[in-house]
Amino acid sequence: MAGGYSEPVSSGPVSSAPPGEHSxxxxxxxxxxxxxxxxxxxxxxxxxxxxxxxxxxxxxxxVPVGGPDQPDYLNAVLLARTTLPPRDLLRQLxxxxxxxxxxxxxxxxxxTLDLDIITYEGVTxxxxxxxxxxxxxxxxxxxxxPWHDVDPAAVLPGRGQVAALLAAAGDGxxxxxxxxxxxx
Length: 184
Ligand code: A4P
Ligand code: MG
Hints:
The chain is of the alpha+beta class. It contains 4 helices and 10 strands; from the N terminus they run E-H-E-E-E-H-E-E-E-H-E-E-H-E.
C-alpha cells in the first residue's frame, strides 16, 4: 500500500476471540428494501471465508449527510474479526455491494448498499483507495451511535473514545429504528 500505511502493534491473542484482526464495518442503504438489504449484507459478510461477525448494532434511520437531495438512510455497524488483509476485506465488501445492485453515479449519492471499513485493528492508511480509519467516521453520528451501542468502550484510532466523539457530534438527524438485524 502507498505511503502512510502502518501495521498495528499486536497486543497478543485473546483466548476466546475468533482468529484474526478486529474490524468495524459500517452499513448504509437508502434505496430499495433497505432493511432487507442490510440484513442480506450482514448474512453475506458473515459468510465470507476468514470473517467472523461478532456483533451487529441496532438500526438507525438517518438524514442524509452531504450529496444531492435523497431519501433517508438506514445505517448500522457490525464488529468482526478477520484473517483477511484490509484490501481483501474491502474487495469482498465491494463484491457484496455489487450483488445488491450498488451503482456509483454521484459521490455521496443514493445507494442500495454502502459498506465502509471504519477501522481495521490499529491500521492507519491515507491511500484514497482504502483510508483507515475511515476519514469521516469521527464526525458522523450515523456511524458513532450504532458503534457505541455495541461497544461502549470503543476507541477510534487517532481520534479517541467513540462516546466522546458521539457527544461532540450530537444525535441530530438520527433516530433509533424499531427494526433489528440479526446475526446468521
Ligand atoms: N475507500 C477509501 N477508504 C475506504 C474505506 N475505509 N472503506 C474508497 C470503504 N471504501 C473506502 O467509495 C468511494 C471510494 O472510497 C471507493 O473506491 C473505495 O475504494 P464509494 O462507496 O464508491 O462511494 P461513497 O460511499 O459515495 O464515497 P465515500 O467517500 O466513501 O462516502 P462516505 O464518506 O462514506 O459517505 N448520510 C447518511 N445519513 N448515511 C450514510 O450512510 N453515507 C455517505 C457516504 C454520505 N452521507 C450519508 C451516508
Ligand atoms: Mg463507501
